[in-house]
Amino acid sequence: MPLMSESEREFPPGFLWGAATAAHQIEGSPLADGAGPSIWTRFAHTPGMMHNGDTGDVACDHYRRWKDDVALMRELGLQAYRFSVSWSRILPAGTGAVNQKGLDFYSRLVDELLANDIEPLLTLYHWDLPAALDDRGGWLNRDSADWFAEYASVLYRALDGRVRKWVTLNEPWVITDGGYLHGALAPGHRSRYEAPIASHNLMRAHGAAVKAYRELGEHEIGLVVNIEPKHPATDSAEDAAAVRRAHAYMNEQYLHPALLGHYPAELKEIFGDAWPDWPAEDFELIKQKLDFVGINYYTRCVSKAAESYPLNTGVVRQPMGTYTETGWEVFPQGLTELLLWFKQTYGDLPVYITENGAAFFDPPTADTDPATGQRRVRDPLRTDYLRKHIGAIHDAIQAGVDVRGYMLWSLMDNLEWSLGYSKRFGMVHVNYTTQERTPKDSARWYSQVIASNGRSLTDPLPY
Ligand code: BGC
To answer: Is the CA virtual torsion 388, 394, 397, 399 positive or negative?
Structure first.
């Protein structure tokens, strides 16, 4: 097949190219300067919860190296940086007294980004609930919507003059599936009864934070969800039903209430007596006008009917498929499919790809890059993954989906939650002993994609 011409892969003018991280995964120093502990500080210090006993105590030491990290972003040519704020740095007890030093950290970071022409995209909540609020029931407490709006308002007042893109929650599905249903993530609960309540309160909190933004903020706010196409393992009616359940549970559970004002009917079937009848007025709070939706995309899922708790679906590994180090199938065309589904289901809302990337085993090599004098980290599988996925976004744009930007996950290797430091998603390699950062080949490649606004996607890869 002939290569596409350069102009065919050019992205729309103003398309925003960047990279993403999250506070707990990179910052380290979780209790510095008056911060309170979060559920992740606690979880990581509970024996048996983390791979290898890893914690976020040091992580990438970004809390102290932030200035150098912004310089690195600049060197790579990033136009945007998506990061999250640690709630318990700002409000150590979750509500009430504001910790000025915590606020100053993010204020300095934002100033430094702007001084380097990098647009900040701020995520208010990327999973690190203040531990003090967990002691009050966490997301199971209906007051959590007010707590979240209070915290968000502190940040709107302090930063909206400089931050123009805000995200309420990152991946409510993972927060509840991992944190309240299966327990692999903080706070580590396992309850079919708790999961729907936590989900619903997260959505109420999202609504309350957007509402507060309309009073205090002047720019844009949205929600970030992780979604993936669910494909049937066979053409049986049972597998079709399994796909329907999996799709409702992951892809519609949050987008439906946020954008359409109701839940998909399948959730009642899935959760049975654990699915409450929600008060109608909750949906007025949850469904707020959004300026954009952020989509995190990693993989697809081939589903079949199977006994599992509580979804009764299983995942079928594809014998001919390619898989990443986290066991996720590489399936770029699924991103085009999802974006088209999103437009068809929810209309013409602007979309950002707020995360996309892959963990691969990429050991540093002995050779040096003559251009930079730095050691090379060859990661052809990541480059290939990124190239195909960015191409899939271009396909969706050509089919009429309003995609406005792409945030690669992740800027650098970091703490992969309960998998600790065992999985490397970064385009920049981090040596966790010395904290040395080394851009991998994929980072150099991505710099060219940014500089050419996508045209270099059709260039042959340099290996
Ligand atoms: C999360 C990130 C995580 C990444 C890779 C997303 O679910 O937002 O925090 O590191 O996927 O697992």
So the answer is: negative
DSSP characters over 163-206? --EEEEEE-HHHHHIIIIIS-SSTT----TTHHHHHHHHHHHHH
Of the chain, the percentage scoring pLDDT greater than 90 comes to 93
75 catalytically annotated: no
d(CA 299, CA 357): 10
Domains assigned to the chain: 6-451 (3.20.20.80)
Closest CA to 413 of 385, 436, 381: 436
Q: Which residue in 51, 12, 225 sits closest to 123, CA to CA?
A: 225
For a mutational test of ligand 1's pocket, the pick from 83, 328, 409, i.e. the residue with the most ligand atoms closer than 8 A to its C-beta, is 409
Query: Could you confirm whether 228 is annotated as catalytic?
Result: no
- Convert the pLDDT of each residue in 219-264 to its tens digit: 999 999 999 999 999 999 999 999 999 999 999 999 999 999 999 9
Can you tell me which residue has the tokens 């706010």?
221
pLDDT value, residue 135:
98
Q: Which two tokens stand for residue 410?
A: 């992740």
Ligand 1 atom at minimal distance to the Cα of residue 425? 5
Nearest residue (CA) to ligand 1, atom 12: 416
Structural contact between residues 353 and 293, judged by C-beta atoms closer than 8 angstroms: no
- Taking the C-alpha atoms of residue 317 and residue 328, their distance in angstroms, rounded to an integer, is 9
Does pLDDT of 6 surpass 90? Answer: no
Q: Which of 27, 171, 194, 337 is flagged as catalytic?
A: 171
Q: Which residues contact 62 (CB under 8 A, 6 or more apart)?
A: 21, 26, 27, 28, 69
CA–CA gap between residue 320 and residue 29 (Å, rounded): 43
Q: Is the pTM of this model over 0.85?
A: yes
C-alpha 9/C-alpha 105 separation (Å) is 39
Please tell me the distance between residue 436's alpha carbon and the centre of ligand 1 in angstroms. 22
The set of residues, in sequence order, having a beta carbon less than 8 Å from that of 100 and lying 6+ positions away, is none
Q: Is 413 in the pocket of ligand 1 (CB under 6 A)?
A: no
Distances (CA, A) of 91 to 95, 103, 132, 182, 263: 6, 9, 10, 28, 32
Distance CA 328, CA 322 (A): 8
